[in-house]
Amino acid sequence: MKQVSQIYINGEFVEPHGTEVMTLVNPVTEQPATEVRLADEIDTQRAIAAAKAAYVTFSKTSKAQRIQYLQQLHDAVKARSEQLIAVMIEEYGGTYAMASGTVNRSAQSFLQAQELLRTYPFVRKEGRATVVMEPLGVVGLITPWNASYGFICNKMATAMAAGSTVVIKPSELSAAQTQLLTECLHDAGLPPGIFNIVTGRGDVVGAEITRHPDIAKISFTGSTLVGKTIARGAVDTMKRVTLELGGKSPNVILEDADLEKAIPLALIVGTFNNGQACLAGTRLIVPESRLDEVKAIIKRAAEQVVVGDPVDPKVQIGPLVTAKQYQRVEDYIRLGIAEGAELVCGGEGRPAGLDKGYFVKPTVFSGVTSQMTIAKEEIFGPVISILTYRSVEEAIEIANDTVYGLHAYVSSADTEKARAVASQIVAGRIFINGIYDEPAAPFGGFKQSGLGREFGSYGLDAYLEPKAVIADND
Ligand code: NAD
């Protein structure tokens, strides 16, 4: 079994003060895989103190210096890409495509932050005033398990571009991935204290970050429930917060769409990352007149999806991350049936041929209404609900009938028609007729999907505070 027994404070791997040990289980074999010793409040305070001390110098570094540090971080992550991919596949159960995409984006995020440093207007003139965008102080970064490296690297790269030092609290379920990523970041050879990494429980380490007066801002990615707890706690010290939370994203198929393209795509966007994706398009909203065609195509496509051990590169859907997550998704599938939805394909239990591991069949329900729990709540597994509409107005109404507003998808033979629909959907990001990667575009949610944006200049804005100076000779 792997042992993860150190955390990273002030440029060193150190033994935590915390003594609790947690055992992580391999999602394919269900066998114990890693023992991780968890940090506690004292460790968190030490990490915050190290980041605070480093901030004094780091916040005054030149753009050129930060660009150099970001290059070193990029090179160090890139150098061990294959190892990072292998550990992510093993610990988390991500497919090769997902894991390699995450690792590549993680390394790239340092280069994107460099680009921001080169192009972002840190000093502006507003009337007589000179406005300087200044760093906030020490930033707490709290991240989930479903693409661990990506969240850590993007958040720390942006915070560092702004001139902030950071305390990172990764998910306790990603301990082996965190260990390896920390080794890479350490190899970059930056001065101590700029980034500190403390793996521990959310209600221990995360709560300390939330309440500590020396943390100026929190950037959190995770569930809406925990995001609300952090926002409530952060207000006491008036911390800035960026919250990237859950979703229940609509995928609107317009009447004229080529279903042979749009529906296989809908299956992919509904089951991204083994179904564990905040931006998954899990509400498939289709014209009533084309329901039978949609059902036939999605059933055919779902039955061709290869589910299994992600060490096999042919596998398209791996296991869910934990037994708890598996039970939760199975419960939703049972609930969908109990609520009267029609099972088009998939259903309870593991796919044929898999007798262990947290594998769920790609599952599609039809006859779903917006009132059903499976249409309202984020399931976080490969489960898609089909809802039908009779007019475009009704399709938009269904799309917006959710507390979330993270992402949306629209398919049509006429891109301009799809744009018109997109303009009426309440969501932070909308993809028309495809899946795209645009790291300069803002990412984040309307409504209960969050607060603020990440990526590109919008992401950097969130780590800066404007200071206006007006002088007698302005
Ligand atoms: P989670 O909210 O349970 O945990 C996220 C992080 O918060 C973990 O590090 C956890 O330890 C920590 N945490 C837990 N309780 C805390 C507390 N009281 N105070 C401070 N920190 C605490 O989420 P998860 O299960 O790890 O991830 C899945 C969720 O993340 C889903 O809801 C998904 O939609 C969301 N997510 C959102 C995005 C996005 O960009 N919007 C991206 C990925 C995942």
Any idea what the radius of gyration is?
Answer: 23 Å
CATH class of the largest domain: Alpha Beta
CATH H-level superfamily of the largest domain: Aldehyde Dehydrogenase, Chain A, domain 1
Count of alpha/pi helices: 15
Question: Major β-sheet, in short?
Answer: 7 strands, mixed
Helix content: 40-55%
Q: SS-based structural class?
A: alpha/beta
**Terminus-to-terminus distance:** 66 Å
Under the CATH scheme, which architecture of the largest domain would be assigned?
Answer: 3-Layer(aba) Sandwich
**Tally of domains:** 2
Low-confidence stretches: none
> Which ligands occur here?
nicotinamide-adenine-dinucleotide
Give the averaged pLDDT, no decimals. 98
Overall shape: it is: globular
Which fold name corresponds to the CATH topology of the largest domain? Aldehyde Dehydrogenase, Chain A, domain 1
Number of strands: 21
DSSP strand content: 15-25%
Largest beta sheet: strand ordering? 15-16-17-14-13-18-19
Structural features:
Aldehyde Dehydrogenase, Chain A, domain 2, Aldehyde Dehydrogenase, Chain A, domain 1, 2 domains, 40% helix, alpha/beta, binds nicotinamide-adenine-dinucleotide, 474 residues
In a few lines, what is going on in this structure?
This protein has helices spanning 41-58, 63-79, 81-92, 96-119, 148-162, 175-187, 202-211, 224-234, 259-271, 291-304, 323-338, 373-376, 392-400, 415-422, 456-461, and strands at 2-4, 7-9, 12-14, 21-25, 32-37, 123-126, 129-135, 138-142, 166-169, 195-197, 215-221, 240-244, 250-253, 283-287, 342-345, 363-366, 383-389, 407-411, 429-432, 450-451, 464-469.
